[in-house]
Amino acid sequence: MVQMTIQVAGAFSGSLRWGGGSSSAATAGCCVQHTSPLAAACRSGWTAARTFASHGMNHNITRGAGSLVCAEASTSGASASASSRAQRPRPRRQGTGGGSGQQARARASTPCAGATAPSSSSSSSSFAASASGSVAPTAAASASAAGVNADSLVFIGFHPEEMDIIRQQLPAVAPVAAAGAQQPGEVGMLSLVGVTEAMLDLTLREALTSSGSSSGASGDGNGGEQGDQRPSNGAVAAGRVVLLRGGGAQELGGELNDLLTEWGVVPALVAAATARHESMPLRQVVAALRDAHARYYELLQPVKLRDSSSSNAATAGPAAGQQQQQQQQLDPADAAVLADVRVLLSAALDAGEVPSIHGDYRRDAAHVAVLDGLVTEAERAELLAWLTAPGHNHAGPPPEDKWEMACVDRVGDNATWGLRPEVLAALRDDPPPPVVALQSRLAALYPEYTLCHMPAQQISDAPGGDDDTDTTLSCFVGNAVMHGDPCAWHVDADPTTVPPYSPWVHNFGYYHNRELGRPLFVTVLIYLNDTWPEDNHAETLFLDPETQLGLFVRPAPGRVVLMEQDMPHRISAPSRVAPGPRYSLVWKQVWVPREGQGQGQGQGGPRDPACADQERAAGFQSLCRPEWGEPVRIGSANRNAGIRAYQPPVQQ
Ligand SMILES: O=C(O)CCC(=O)C(=O)O
Ligand SMILES: [Fe+2]
C-alpha cells in the first residue's frame, strides 16, 4: 500500500550514511550485509532513499566542509568525478489507474554532507592518465597552435536545461568568455562548450572549431537560445563527461563537481583533455574515459563462471562473436541442466511512466521470474551444507560460526540471522561449486549481459573506499528467517538512488532501472531448505504499490527467483509450525548490456538482434526473456486494471 511505502521511507529517513551523518553507516547502501557500529546488516540497499516522486527533483545537496566532490585530481589537474541533473530522476508520471500511485523510484534526496573526497594528492593515480595510457601533455599547447581557444570546458551529454544553469552560474566563479568569443579567446578566458549528439563523431579539435557555428555546438556564454544547436539529449546515452581543456579549465577541475552540485546539477565524470584527445572523435574519448574510470573504480566485477565460460569477464574476449562463443563453451553438464529448467512465472508489476535518459518518458514496469531446476538437488544440498555445516540440524538456528544476528530490513528493527561478512566475502571471491554453477547457467541464459556483482562498496561509500565507520559491504545476503522475525517491505537497490558522489553515478549517471544500454539491477535468490511444507509459510511477497496488489512465491527447495531490484518486496516470516529457519541466499547483481549502446564499457559481443529489437520496441530492458512469452501483468502493469466493471447498456 502506498502508506506502507511511505512508512518504509519514513522509517529510514535520516538513517542512511549519506542522509543521516556518520552514525548511520549501518544502513548505507547495504544491498548487502556488513558489519557496522549498529551491527546490523540490511537486506535493502537504498530503502532509505526510497521516498516519493515529488521529491525526485530535490537533491538538497549543500556544499561546504566535507562536501561531496569526488575529485581525483590528476597530475595535470584533472578530476574524475561526476553525475548529472540531466539524468536525475524526475517525478514519475502516473501510470494507468490513477490514485496516488507514487512510485518510489525517485531518489528523494542525495545529501552528501560528511562524504569525504579523496584528496587531490599526488598519490592518487591520474585518472586522465589511465584513460589515455600515459600522462600526456594537455591540449592547451596544440590547441593554441591551431588558433583554437586553449582553455575550454567541454560538457558532453548534459541536458539543455543543465547547460542553461551552467551558463548562468559559471561566470560568477570563473572568467567565462562571452558568447561567440572563441577565436582565440581572451587570455585567461574559458570558453564553455556544450556537445550535441551530432557532434559526438567530431574530434575534440573539430568540435571546438565548429563551436558556435552551424555544426551544432552550443556556444559560449549564453547559448541557451540556440535552438537545435543546444546539446541534444541523445548525447546523454554516450555518457556524461566534462573535458577540461587547458590549464585555466583544469584549475577549475577539482572544484567543478562541487559547483555543479551546488547549482543542482548532478556531477559528472571530469577529466583533463590531453593532446591525444584532440584528434579522437568525442564519442571515442568519452568511451575511453568511461572505460578507464570503470576499471579504476572496479565498477564492473564479473561473477565467477566455470572456466569454459569465463568469457563473461567484462574485459575479456574480442568484441565480435562473444555471445556465440559463450554459448558454445557452455559446459555440457550445465547445458543439460538448462534444458530442464522450467519458467514458472514471468511477471510485470509496478508500472508507470518514467523519464528516460534521453529526456522523454518511457513506459516502465518491474519484473520478476521464478525458475525451477536451475540448480540440481545435489547442488542445493551442497550449498546449504556449505553455508551451514555438513549434517547441521536445520530444525535449530543456523551455526554461529557462519551466521550472526545482523540482518535487518529497516533500521531499528530487531536483527535476524544473516551470514557473517567473511562468508559473504568468500561467496564472491572463492565461491563454492554450486554458486559457480548457478552463475554460469544464468550467464548462459542471459548472453546479452555481462553478469557482475553489484559494486556495493563503490556505490555505497565515498570513492576511495572505507570511511571512518569500518563498514564492510557485500554483494551477497544470507537469510535464515525464523518465526516471529520482523520482515519489512523494501527495495534492494535502485539506480536512481545511488549517492551522487559515487563513481557509479559519475560513470552511468542516474537512470531508472531497465533503461536501454544501462546496467540492469537484478537480485537473484535461491531457497535452500531440504523441504518446505506449505504450512511453514515464509513466502516472498511482491507489491504493486499503486494498486496494492501483488504476488507471492512459495519457497521450494532449489527454486530460483529473479527480480529487478527496484521492485518492492519482502519476506514473510515462517509460521509457528516451521521447525527452523527458512534459508535463502541472495545475489545483488548488475547486468551490463554487452552491446553497450555507446557506453564504452567494452564488454563482449553484440546482442541477439531479435532480442535487441524487441527491447527497443518495448523501450526498456527486462529480465523476462522474450522467448518466455508475454509476462503476466499484475496491478498497474495490467493495462486493464481499473476499467469500469459496469458499463451501462447503450440506449438505442
Ligand atoms: O528470502 C527472501 O524471500 C527475500 C530476501 C530479500 O528480500 C533480501 O535478502 O533482500
Ligand atoms: Fe530484498
Automatic annotation (TrEMBL):
Could you name the domain of life of the organism this protein comes from?
Eukaryota
Biased segments, Low complexity type = 102-130, 313-332
Q: What is this protein called?
A: Fe2OG dioxygenase domain-containing protein
State the residue spans of region: Disordered.
Answer: 79-130, 209-233, 307-332, 595-616
Source organism per UniProt: Chlamydomonas schloesseri
Q: Which residues form the Fe2OG dioxygenase domain?
A: 471-594
